[in-house]
Design a protein that fits this description.
- By secondary structure, this protein is α/β, with parallel strands linked by helices.
- It has two domains: 3-142, Response regulator (Rossmann fold); 150-211, Arc Repressor Mutant, subunit A, CATH 1.10.10.10.
- The protein is built from eleven helices and five strands, in the order H-E-H-E-H-E-H-E-H-E-H-H-H-H-H-H.
- Strands 2-1-3-4-5 form a five-stranded parallel beta sheet, with helices on both faces.
- The model is unreliable at 148-152 (pLDDT under 50).
């Protein structure tokens, strides 16, 4: 592999406290030449140490781990202003758990039933700035949020459309192409959305939009 190929690889750290699943995850990631697995960890504290040391583009974490659970790892990364984006892969994917993961700052959530290709594709999407939330998880999350009730938030029609496209996983470039807008204009709308919803990243914006009844 050339130095140029190495620079183009997406760097990843993975953590899971189940040895067999962690082994399978390692094999899944190492099978893709576009990904470079830097290290693996069996608990949340070690995962946080490795992420802070190596600063990978994406961390693939189980939600429930010893020492520190995945949500606390994400909170500490956000507080440290780490640029590593987090994908949760968990056998538990009820709406409440997904909501907690997204509001903690995760960029995506997959069930452990996801295939290797789905996990690899999600990593690439998250590294490019998108969010990942499969339909079955999204349905469960929407049900949870509807049960909580909705509070009104005034968004312009354009802002609401952009929020809906963000919920579908669209990046700023994809949204700009879809709406025939300049990318800086889309990014301005996104920042306005964040301010109105009281959040600072895409996953939290989608979760908060659903909680307030702006998304179904």
């Amino acid at each position: 592999m050339t130095p140029e190929d190495l620079r183009e690889q997406t760097t990843v750290i993975a953590a899971d406290d189940h040895p067999l699943y962690l082994k399978a995850m390692r094999e899944t990631l190492e099978a893709d030449p576009s990904l470079r697995l830097i290290a693996v960890a069996a608990d949340g504290r070690r995962a946080l140490e490795l992420i802070m040391k190596h600063e990978p583009q994406v961390a693939v974490l189980d939600v429930r781990m010893p020492e520190l659970d995945g949500r606390e790892v994400v909170r500490r990364l956000r507080r440290s202003e780490s640029r590593t984006r987090v994908l949760f892969v968990s056998e538990y994917h009820g709406g409440e758990l997904v909501l907690q993961a997204l509001t903690a700052g995760a960029a995506g959530f997959l069930s452990k039933a996801a295939s290797g290709e789905e996990i690899r594709a999600a990593i690439r999407r998250i590294a490019s700035g998108e969010s990942v939330l499969p339909a079955d998880v999204g349905t469960s999350l929407a049900s949870t949020l509807r049960e909580r009730g909705a509070a009104g938030t005034h968004l312009s029609p354009r802002e609401l459309t952009i929020l809906e496209l963000m919920a579908d996983g669209g990046s700023a470039q994809i949204i700009a192409d879809r709406l025939h807008l300049a990318v800086p204009t889309v990014k301005t709308h996104i920042q306005n959305l964040y301010a109105k919803l009281g959040v600072n990243d895409r996953g939290a914006a989608v979760a908060e939009g659903m909680r307030r009844g702006l998304l179904s």
